[in-house]
Design brief:
Rossmann fold, eight-stranded mixed beta sheet, 9 helices, about 260 residues, N-(1-d-carboxylethyl)-l-norvaline Dehydrogenase, domain 2
Length: about 260
């Protein structure tokens, strides 16, 4: 398929590279930061511009790989008639691009993407389409770049986006805090690497609730009090520790999930 990508950030880079790798032709990259558009376009062998008025009008799919706020701006500025227009956001309804075209869809990558990546992990794609024709074209495109495809409406996709925030964003922040704490206290964070790997490796064989361990699960009040007492100079961790500990206890023992 011939593709126009609007955006030049992490998602635009990853989708652009995957589409090129699987035989699609990215005809144009559009970004209001022209240098960013040029960088991606040159790698893809595409044209580029920072002006929506110069948009290539003969593409099969127009992919909006931009931030949530920019999607709303494009809905006010861009008019593509009956051309297929697809956004890639998890928390934005498909209706948010309804003024751009009558043929709209969503292709949301349920993965943490960075433009520096060249060896891509598995990327499940969640699709939504305004009609059968859009779904047919979008599914064919998705199937060419991913082995895992799911179909959800906007409300269901938002639920998955929220779950992804807990799985990835919040988990990564916990690791960030642990690293910061170790650095401040002169402890070697790298010693935790085998534990971190084991934590995630277990999920290949067991559901997460089956492998929960730690003082909160045991309701080891003495250990939890000791931990809290040494977090005086780390207010974020001091606040999070009892909240997370109580959540673990309630989930496993209190019947409050």
């Amino acid at each position: 398929m011939d593709i126009v990508i609007i955006g030049a950030g992490n998602v635009a880079h990853c989708f652009g590279h995957l589409m090129k790798l699987h035989g699609h032709q990215v005809k144009q990259v559009i970004s209001r930061q022209k240098e960013h558009a040029r960088e991606l376009a040159e790698w893809l062998g595409a044209n580029y511009t920072d002006d929506l008025l110069d948009i290539y009008m003969e593409a099969d799919v127009y992919l909006l790989a931009v931030s949530d706020d920019v999607i709303a701006e494009l809905n006010d500025q861009l008019r593509l008639g009956r051309r297929i227009v697809v956004h890639t956001a998890g928390a934005v309804p498909m209706a948010a691009i309804s003024r751009i075209s009558v043929n709209t869809g969503v292709m949301y990558p349920l993965q943490s993407l960075r433009k520096e990546i060249r060896s891509y992990p598995s990327i499940p794609l969640i699709l939504e389409a305004a009609n059968d024709e859009v779904y047919r074209r979008l599914h064919a495109l998705a199937q060419s770049i991913s082995s895992t495809i799911a179909v959800m409406d906007s409300a269901q996709r938002l639920q998955m986006h929220l779950a992804a925030v807990f799985c990835n964003n919040f988990t990564n922040h916990m690791l960030t805090l642990a690293k910061f704490y170790c650095e401040q206290e002169g402890r070697d964070f790298s010693l935790l690497a085998p534990l971190i790997r084991e934590t995630f490796d277990r999920l290949e064989k067991f559901p997460p609730e089956a492998v929960q361990t730690g003082p909160a699960l045991r309701h080891d009040e003495k250990t939890m009090a000791l931990h809290t007492s040494i977090l005086t100079h780390y207010p974020s961790m001091e606040q999070l520790y009892p909240l997370l500990s109580e959540s673990i206890w309630q989930f496993h023992h209190g019947g409050q999930k």
